[in-house]
Amino acid sequence: MDKARNVRCQVLYDSQEVGLSTILESLSYTDNSSGVSDEINLVFSGRNADWLRRSFTPEKGHDLDVTLWLSNWKKQGDRLRYHCGNFTLDDLTYSGMPGRCVIRGVSVPAEESFQTSPVSKTWEKVTLKQIAQEMITKYGMRELYYHGEEPVMEKVEQSRQADSEFLREICERQGMFLKVYKKDIIIFDKITYETKGTVADYWEKDLEEWSWNTTLNGTYTGATIAYTIPEKKKTIETTIGQGPRLLYINERADSEGDALRIARSKVNSANEKAVTISFTAMANPDVVATCNIGIYGLGRCNGKYFVDKVQHRVTGAGGYTMSISGYRIFDRL
């Protein structure tokens, strides 16, 4: 007789098994492709809340390492591992009755100053990769994964900005996307991911519920940018793409190449909302934010989609579903 699918959650606290895994009631985890930190919520309640009165209680700022183990998921006898990641415990909520505890973790460095401390600094003749690598070292992180071009920026001003905000803004200007983990940083050009194959294909029968949207509003066929080079005190205008729907931009830039990168980034980012899909389905550990999936059997909704967000939900009864959001891959400027 076939064994039922089963999912087990492993929750380590500062790399140690302290008993959280056995008393977890439910878990929700959001995996974002870029721009927003991943987040995890762990719920303990009812009879499982007795541990709150023991000598051990979790504290903010500590590390949560969360892994899902899936048995008999795709076929009988398999045992799959899905590592949600490492998170900094940043929020605790207790309530009753019955006794309930919710622990939230975010995938950012434990060093709080990365997000909060204002920094002023001038960078000259520097690449985005060099700035990110310096921050990796500054905050004692592990690794930088950089996928894309490395144009040299003549001058960059960081004016009383937290390093996290500054790095995100520079990535956006350069048309790059940023994902910050607790111990690593990934900076990538989406086109390098969009050209990869699909990790999973979905047909209508696979979807518990779904929603598809296409819009013209706020999408563009090109851009005209009027950029100012402060050293030359001169304003120049240049265009990328063509009508009928041009985005008009006024920005500071070091050169025409820098201006075109800014314009291209803004148009491509806006056009990601042209065709979008979201749906809920049985969990698949192969599907993560930044991967590609195929949609079939839905007529005009069919196509290859880039996954922007995956929301995992695990319940104590062994239920495990995923909600997936993404956009249909298009020809970028």
**Total strands:** 20
Apparent shape:
globular
Major sheet: size, sense and barrel closure? 12 strands, mixed
Number of helices: 5
By secondary-structure content and strand pairing, the structural class works out as mainly beta
| Helix-strand topology string | EEEEEEHEHEEHEEHEEEEEHEEEE
| Distance from first to last alpha carbon | 55 Å
- For the CA atoms, what is the radius of gyration? 23 Å
Mean pLDDT: 90
Labels describing this entry:
single chain, 333 residues, mainly beta, twelve-stranded mixed beta sheet, three-stranded mixed beta sheet, 5 helices, 14% helix
Q: Would you give an account of this structure?
A:
- By secondary structure, the chain is mainly β.
- Helices cover 14% and strands 47% of the residues.
- It is built from 5 helices and 20 strands.
- It has helices spanning 113-116, 128-138, 163-173, 190-194, 256-271, and strands at 6-13, 26-32, 39-45, 63-71, 79-95, 100-106, 119-127, 143-147, 152-161, 177-180, 184-188, 200-203, 207-214, 222-229, 234-241, 246-252, 275-282, 292-296, 303-315, 320-328.
- Strands 1, 2, 3, 4, 5, 6, 12, 13, 17, 18, 19 and 20 form a 12-stranded mixed β-sheet that branches. The protein has a 3-stranded mixed β-sheet with strand order 8-11-10. A 3-stranded mixed β-sheet has the order 15-14-16, covered by helices on one side.
- β19 and β20 (320-328) form a beta hairpin.
- α2 (128-138) packs antiparallel against α3.
- The chain is globular.
- The model has no long low-confidence stretch (mean pLDDT 90).
